[in-house]
UniProtKB/TrEMBL annotation:
Extent of motif Q motif: 12-40
Helicase ATP-binding domain location: 43-216
Protein family membership: Belongs to the DEAD box helicase family.
Record-linked Pfam families: DEAD, Helicase_C
Basic residues: compositionally biased ranges: 515-525
Helicase C-terminal domain span: 227-390
A single cellular component GO annotation: cytosol
Domain DEAD-box RNA helicase Q: start-end pairs: 12-40
Keywords tagged on the record: ATP-binding, Helicase, Hydrolase, Nucleotide-binding
GO molecular function: ATP binding; hydrolase activity; nucleic acid binding; RNA helicase activity
Name of protein: DEAD/DEAH box helicase
Keyword ATP-binding: yes
Species in which this protein is naturally found: Microbispora catharanthi
Record field: compositional bias (Basic and acidic residues): 405-420, 429-453
Length: 525
């Protein structure tokens, strides 16, 4: 039971904004003590049905500023299959996952389902979710467009559309795709656009799709967070790796930004040779790797994260006390977004930029446009000023293995609400411990050690039926059929292996509906 002091005041403050009791209670359970300024300003206007144009620095609470009133407005009705009622568009997978993680538990209190539709993750599972009905879809533009073109999703019922980090989507070249998606939503729907900066192509989106928007701009476009310290560290090229290692070896969570994916991998290896464990995050890694690396950073398994600019938009970790630009960012907007990973929720933070002699002029111009006045220091490895401003420490030099996340550990606890034998969407293939076996991806023949065989037919064919899915395979080349087939399909032909669609004939693979293998066909019931 909550105490009657601060908690009661918190509930009253959120309730005064017009939010329903389940949302207010959900916020209190999460320990959210008071609305941020952009939330106080924007939530009443969104609840009133106005289009809203919001600008606030990273970490200013934009997600709940649009998420809470969106959940409130669509509550009370159930989404039809494949027809979400609210859409949140974001530029990166990490940001989509974080927005969904913030909204999903709050939405449950209003009986609303929130799901992500992003690339790099199972399309089959996303289609399955959409067919069951999803109220709030948090999506990246590319994957959502794919599902719409396949007929698995329609935006005709969308009441509220949110563009989060709209400027970054435009910077990544998503303007035509985002425009096409917005054009598919009802013309009289409500549109909300939130970003740290509002300029360039964003103005074109505002002019075309927002109607008399209410503007909430709590910070000047070039302002920096007051609790940040900014320093330019001038180094010689030969000293850059050693200075980077000393700064990374400090106490506290630290994020290093590098320009390219290859650069991320190189810096992680250099740090490991110096004795500093760090995780590398960039778009070239599989999504499950990226998720585990980010989880390891949040949980404190690693204290240093090395990443690219694209990943900067998806990192929301509190208590990051220092951001180091190993490579200076390309422009002032990237500088502000990178630096926004620190000094969150009122905490203090330090932003350092390593500058080579050839980069001084461009870096000076960038910081002027960003509206910051950094301190300048010329340093060499072991310089006391590094310890003073960043807490840098010289590593012990004992090499450590390059850190990689444990891919055997499940990302989330297994769901126990799945009906035994229920068929999953054919687009997903079982992997590793999902198959019957020892958890290492190898399958057992049967409980008795032999694979059960199906009846032989007169023309030399074998038939196998899947007990769980109800489908079966027929192979033209002879073989045997499993009456207790694995997954959703069973075995047939020449000992083909079936996952959710299975193999048949001489190795032909059938998904949901199946693809033909040589001398085989797939029939599903």
């Amino acid at each position: 039971m909550l105490d009657l002091g601060e908690g009661t005041e918190t509930r009253a403050e959120f309730a005064l904004l017009g939010l329903p009791k389940p949302l207010v209670a959900g916020l209190a359970r999460q320990g959210i003590t008071a609305p941020f300024p952009i939330q106080r300003a924007a939530i009443p206007d969104i609840l009133a049905g106005y289009d809203v144009l919001g600008r606030g620095q990273t970490g200013s609470g934009k997600t709940l500023a649009f998420g809470l009133p969106t959940l409130t407005r669509i509550a009370g009705e159930k989404a039809r299959p494949g027809r979400p009622r609210a859409l949140v568009l974001v530029p990166t997978r990490e940001l989509a996952l974080q927005v969904a993680d913030a909204l999903e538990p709050l939405g449950r209190g209003l009986s609303l389902r929130t799901r992500t539709v992003v690339g790099g993750m199972s399309m089959g599972r996303q289609i399955e979710d959409l067919r069951r009905g999803v109220d709030v879809v948090v999506a990246t533009p590319g994957r959502l467009t794919d599902l719409i073109e396949q007929g698995e999703c329609a935006l005709d019922d969308v009441q509220i559309t949110v563009l989060d980090e709209a400027d970054h989507m435009c910077d990544l070249g998503f303007l035509p795709v985002v425009s096409a998606l917005l054009a598919r939503t009802p013309a009289d729907g409500q549109r909300l656009l939130f970003s740290a900066t509002l300029d360039g192509d964003v103005d074109r989106l505002v002019t075309r799709f927002l109607t008399d928007p209410v503007i909430h701009s709590l910070d000047p476009a070039t302002s920096s967070v007051e609790t940040m310290e900014h320093h330019l560290i001038q180094v010689h090229r030969d000293d850059k790796a050693d200075v980077t290692a000393e700064i990374a070896n400090r106490d506290g969570r630290t994020i290093l930004f590098v320009r390219t994916q290859h650069g991320v991998d190189r810096v992680v290896k250099q740090l490991a040779r110096s004795g500093v464990r760090a995780g590398g995050l960039h778009g070239g890694k599989r999504q499950n790797q990226r998720t585990r690396i980010l989880d390891g950073f949040r949980e404190g398994t690693i204290g240093v994260l090395v990443c690219t600019d694209v990943a900067a938009r998806g990192i929301h970790v509190d208590d990051v006390s220092l951001v180091l630009h190993v490579d200076p960012p390309a422009d002032h907007k990237s500088y502000l977004h990178r630096g926004g990973r620190t000094a969150r929720a009122g905490e203090r933070g330090v932003v350092l930029t390593l500058v080579l002699p050839s980069e001084r002029r461009a870096t000076d111009s960038m910081t002027r446009k960003a509206g910051v006045t950094p301190s300048r220091h010329r340093v060499a490895p072991g310089d006391p000023i590094l310890a003073e401003i960043a807490g840098a420490r010289r590593p012990n030099g004992a090499a450590v293995p390059v850190w990689e996340p444990d891919v055997r550990r499940p990302l989330r606890p297994a769901r126990d609400d799945r009906t035994p034998g229920r068929r999953r969407h054919g687009g997903d293939r079982h992997r590793g411990a999902d198959r019957p076996g020892d958890g290492d991806g190898r399958r057992r023949r049967s409980e008795q050690g032999e694979r059960p065989r199906g009846p032989w037919t007169g023309d030399g064919r074998a038939e196998g039926r899947a007990e769980t899915g109800g489908g079966h395979h027929r192979g033209r080349t002879g073989g045997h059929g499993g009456q207790a087939g694995h997954g959703q399909a069973g075995y047939s032909g020449q000992a083909g292996y079936g996952s959710q669609g299975g193999y048949s004939g001489q190795g032909g693979y059938g998904g949901q509906g199946g693809r033909r293998g040589r001398g085989s066909r797939f029939t599903g019931r």
